[in-house]
Amino acid sequence: MSSDAASPSHLDMSNSSNHGDELMKAASEPMAAGGHMMSADDSDNPQNWPVLKKVYASAVAFAFAFVVAFGATAYTAGISGVVERFHVKMQVAILGFSLYLLGIAFAPITTPHLSERYGRQAIYLFSLPIFSLFILGASFSHSFAALAVCRFFAGFFGGPCLVLIEGTFADVWSANVTVAYYSVLALASFVGTGTGPLVGGFIFAYGGWRWTQWITLILTLGAYLFGIGMPDTYPREIQRRRARRTGMPLKLMDAQSGVTLKDMATVTFVIPLKMLFTEPIVIGLSLYVGFIFAVTFQFFISIPAVLEATYSFTVQQVGIAFTAAIVGALISSTMSSIIDISVPHWCTRNHDGTVPEEYRMLPAMIGGPLVTISLFWIAWTAKPSIHYLSPIFGTLFYIWGAQSIIISSISYLFDAYPPRGTLSALTAAASFRLVLGAIIPLFIIQMITNLTGAWAISTFGFISAALLPVPYILYIFGARLRASSKYNPMMPASMTKHDEEMQMQGMETGI
């Protein structure tokens, strides 16, 4: 999620007119700057950078997010080794996986505040080395308690890389390609998590469970060396550095994520909690994406168990089976990008050129049925009498659908609210899905034992069927829900995030 969002005053309807006066006053002062927007003709504006510089910044963000995602699931390939080394039950050993995800869940809450104050580059280059130290600690752990603690803090310090990638892409690429860049950043997570057990399976077979951590460390070092020259992409920090370099005074608006600790807690904790219980759009999409994350991450526990028990797969063969997830992620990103490119052109040719925000739901409307069908497909074809390729192909279609739902949901949340509400909505959805993703894997072995694998996965299929209407409801009624939201004060349903940003930019540049 991007850290370019809202302060409490932005979210308070009663302050909206006063805040507009403050914006106009700040814009009228020669050295004032909005902080989050730069002039369209400013050469330092990241969106005006040469293409190679933009691609490099994006590639570094991708690499950093990839290694953190890789570190989450590489561990699962060596869980049996953790059980044997520390003499713990499988459910306990899974904690090393779940605590990592739980550590990441704090990132959407804390990272925006740090990014507002120090920029993106500093957070990237600080968090990844600390992440690597805890991965190193995990690899040398001599007790399971030490391993669990190191895994938690590895997730905690690696988490910002998974959060900042969204902001980095939004900094350097136009809002017209929102779904396209969300498709790429989703790949960082899905390909990273899919590659983890693939590589980890071979590493574990030949080197033991500690090597699943050392290979993560090696990849992290490579990513860091690749990204050491990454420029800061955050407009607010770019303006601060330029002011220091030129000696010119600069007056920035208050950080949009809040200034005082109370403000910060309001924006990224209190309001997200309220949204999870009172805001229909956030409730629906958080539940759907949270469910998708929970099922996806439990697969890294259940798929090895099922393939090993049913088809006598080795740990290397299980890893290869996860290539289906990588292919599914690639198909989803391609499909979502094609839709994002095609729909605006169709609207321009056949309507007045207005592209409703609800078209963001189209990939999810395709992905939802794929998820439901694939879950029952996997559940009832993973048996000795049916070829092992059947459940593996089912996994491909599941990931295709799951990633499509995530791309749609996050890009819609990004567009459904003006900047003043985006941060809180994205924080709510991000932390909620990570918490669910951490919890469900802890219970999947019991579910398979008590219900059988077929009925355990079918349970997820029934839940996905209940959630299936969510994107269709938002496609039909989303505009009305946005217009009636208290987090969209004074904003008609037809107004887009781009419209509001242009208004803010116009005030800054005197247009």
Structure, explained:
The protein contains 21 helices and two strands. Helix content is 78%, strand content 1%. The chain is globular. It is an all-alpha fold. The protein has a two-stranded parallel ribbon with strand order 1-2. The N terminus and C terminus are likely disordered.
Topology:
Blueprint: H1 8-11, H2 16-28, E1 32-33, H3 51-77, H4 79-86, H5 90-93, H6 95-104, H7 107-139, H8 144-172, H9 178-207, H10 210-227, H11 235-246, E2 251-252, H12 261-278, H13 280-311, H14 315-321, H15 323-350, H16 362-381, H17 389-416, H18 419-439, H19 441-467, H20 469-484, H21 497-509
Parallel strand pairs: 1-2
State the gist of this model.
The chain is mainly α and about 500 residues long. Helices cover about 80% and strands about 0% of the residues.
Strand order of the largest sheet: 1-2
Total helical elements: 21
Strand content: under 5%
Q: Segments where pLDDT lies below 50 for 5+ residues?
A: 1-35, 490-511
Annotation, overall tally of beta strands: 2
**Gross morphology:** globular
- Helix and strand element order: HHEHHHHHHHHHEHHHHHHHHHH
- Secondary structure class reads mainly alpha
- Cα radius of gyration in angstroms: 23 Å
Q: What percent of the residues sit in helical stretches (DSSP H or I)?
A: over 70%
Reported for the largest beta sheet, the result is: 2 strands, parallel
**End-to-end separation:** 30 Å
Average the pLDDT over all residues and give the rounded result: 86
